[in-house]
Design brief:
The complex is a heterodimer of chains A (433) and B (489). Helices cover 35% and strands 20% of the residues of chain A. In chain A, strand 16 and strand 17 form a beta hairpin. In chain A, helix 4 packs across helix 15 and helix 5 crosses helix 7. In chain A, the strands form six sheets. Chain A has a six-stranded mixed β-sheet with strand order 3-2-1-10-11-22, sandwiched between helices. In chain A, strands 12, 13, 14, 15, 20 and 21 form a six-stranded mixed β-sheet that branches. Chain A is of the alpha+beta class. By secondary structure, chain B is mainly alpha-helical. Chain B has 17 helices and two strands. In chain B, strands 1-2 form a two-stranded antiparallel sheet. In chain B, strand 1 and strand 2 form a beta hairpin. Chain B starts with a helix and ends in a 10-residue tail after the last helix. The chains are: A alpha+beta (433), B mainly alpha (489). Chains A and B meet through helix 12, helix 13 and helix 16 of A and strand 2, helix 7 and helix 10 of B.
Chain lengths: 433, 489
Amino acid sequence: MVNYGGDEVSALVLDIGSSSLRAGYAGDDTPKVISPTSYGYIKALDDGDFSMADINDTEVAPKPKLAKSFIGQSGPSVWRSGMEVANPIKGGLINDFGPIHALVEHAIVNVMGCNPSEHPVLVTEPSWNTVENRERMAEIMFEEFQVPAFYISNTGVLNTFAAGKGSALVIDVGQDMASVTPVVDGFVLRKGLVYSSLPSLIHSGAHRILTQPTHTRRGIDLFPHQLIANKSPVEPNSPPKFTLREDRLTGTTNSWRQWYEAREVDEWLQTVGGVLESGWNDQAAASRPPKQYEFPTGYNTWFGAERYYVGEQFFYHSPQMSASNHSLPKTIPALISESLRSYDIELRQVLMGNVVLTGGGSLFSGFNDRLAAELGRTFPHAKIHAPGNPTERRYGGWLGGSILASLGTFHQLWISKEEWQEHGKGIVTQRCK
Amino acid sequence: MTATAADVRSILSIQAHFVPSAAAKKQSTSQAKKPEGISRELYSLIGPSAPSLAAQLQKPQLKQKPRLGSSAVRWEWRKFRNGARGDSLELGHWVKATADPDTEYPFSKYNVQTAHFIYSQDEYSKHLEVDPEWTKDETDYLFNLVREYDQRWHIISDRYDYPGGPHRVMEDLKERFCNVCRRLVRDRPWAGDEASRVQLISTFMFDKERELIRKRYLANLDNRTPREAEEEEALYLEVKRIEQNERKFKRDREELLRTLAGIDSGLPDIVEDELPTILFDSKKKKKGGLDADSPSTPVSAAPPKQRPQPSPRNPVYDALHCITHIDLPVTTPATKAAHQPSFLRTYKLPVPKAAVVPKISQTLAEINISYNRLVMPTEGNVARLNALIDATLPLVETKRVLDKVEYDIKVLKERLNVRSSAPVEEEAGGVVDAADGEAIEGTEEGRAQSVVSTRSTRSRKQRRSVSVSSVDTTGAGTSRPPPKRQRRN
């Protein structure tokens, strides 16, 4: 046990991302709980009968008394009359601390069955987290969950640890944000940290491609399957035959509808989306075999060059596109070069030899090869570490936290409850550098 | 199919009562015993463990029976305190029940703090207030950061944000830190011996300028476009090729000279390096790979090569030992090309024009001097020989004119004799005579002069013949073609 430097104190690791919340025991290789960060809620003016909510274990009474919220795997994804869907994360940061307690409690108490007051908790944060946010997080943990010890560490560093490195250039592509974080000796170089909401742009681009009619097909309806009463198979590219559940349409809220459409788009992206390995080329894109995809309405068609056009936005914005929109999120190569410019020349060699690619967004087909091609053009010695295991890629931050919190030498860094009470909020910044 | 008794036995896992073959037994016993201190797994990898037939011939063993007698090792959840912590946090972990609960937490020993310098206000004002760019507050701030991040300078310069202070790069911070520490070590009373103190001071040496230059080199190296890098690579190979050709040429020439004249060429030696491997390997090497000899290898920060300081001159000593100094122009860089190689002065002997060579050698032979051979070619002698040849040239020229004129006179006299026998054309001949007389007079005068000059030269030569005494030694010397010298600069 001592040989590997590990000493497990049954700490919990909590990693809250834009799309999902991960929780589990330190020392495990996968999180025990992966639940959506989005949650459903009903503005409960008439707090009456919710038969579905009764069946659902995940129903939790949140702090605002007027609302009833639905959290977890069968939270927002289940259709409920009048249920809105919201996400507390904005731009990678926790924007609304209201539902955080409920989300954490759901994961730790309801799913894992743990008593948080018995376990030290390590929480992750994005590298650009604000001081107020991390102090608020510490406050929630100490005051509301009564944890004995707490630590907050940022995902850049944790991803570096998950890759078994001390220094790395972490390229993290999540659901909302893409970031480039230089990490040296386990510390983030804050001047070299850059991020943009590139994945959101990809997403909205894909949404536009699907819903806007083209000369070969009309706009695609993105009705979720919960709203479809029946459908019959149709030939590819012919109009779908389906009937909607009229009974549900009236009770469907706009936010739920949007959330589900976003899910459909994501699914489409993950299934057919791709990046050309060596730069955009109309011929190369056209020569790739098209892929068939069927939507919940039964409409199905073949997608050819479009599916590569979507992914291309990760690496290249056409000049007219950047001219029309000046606040366009930066592409991955732009982020990398901006980051590289901001720190010592000596570190370039080190960091480019230790590029860590992580985040669910990086699982985009062809992303890794394209990144290698882009980097190889300017840095022939660049080396990319990208775990092939999708779980490891998506939950790299959590995995790093799991490693860190199970190390024997780490246990001196925990902020204990005693210290929290003695020093107050200031200790968080002081301890978690 | 028939099953043998052995098959049945092995199926039923019954221990066979046949005797293993003697060879198998021998082998199994001869197996070396595992030496102490090596783990079993490691030994099985490195030890004499070639999977032999013996392992397969060994009698089948029954599954080991569980050892029910001894009880399982008990583990228990125990609270512990970490000695590295300053508070009373108690965490729990699983330990063997037999472990001693009073032992110190095994990981607390890794909590080592590096020693760091603290200075008092007094010390600061006394020793450290030398740099006007730094205030005490900012120095304090720097030292706190250094302590906080354990001298990880990249992090320190990243986090360095002194309110109201000027922008400082990493080298500024490092320099200030090292300066302060050096001063503190130097000015404080020192308990140990002087050597350790000097050693400690030397660890705080920091050359900011050099570091900045190094960074600039690095940046330049990094900012090359791939095209530039390619070009550089190509140029490098080209230079290598040229050098190789030159070496080949030099070798050939050397060989030629040695066989023909039995001497060395005096060409500078080009440092032989493993050229062929570079030329041929770099092509095979992966594109973009860093090879040790290619110019894309980051160069370590070596200061530019200093020109060796010329040794102080001593005219008396130089004269005594015939030492002359050749001054390179100051503007030429100290490179191979600008280097004037050592040479035999014999090769720097003046060479007269090919047309007059036989005449000159003939003239000089009269005074026993060979124009291309000096017994002792010191610089002075060479200069004199030079002057001699310069003087001989007009002499030879004059002699040529003299001979021509003498011949003319002879011809004219012949004609005169013929004319006197035929006085009819006297008048016309008189005109010619007058002109001839003038010419004769002029040549007589020129001859007298030339004789004098020849004489004076000769007498000068003879006086000097002890030192210059040029001897026309061998036939080989004269048959040798005049040495062709290659200009190197």
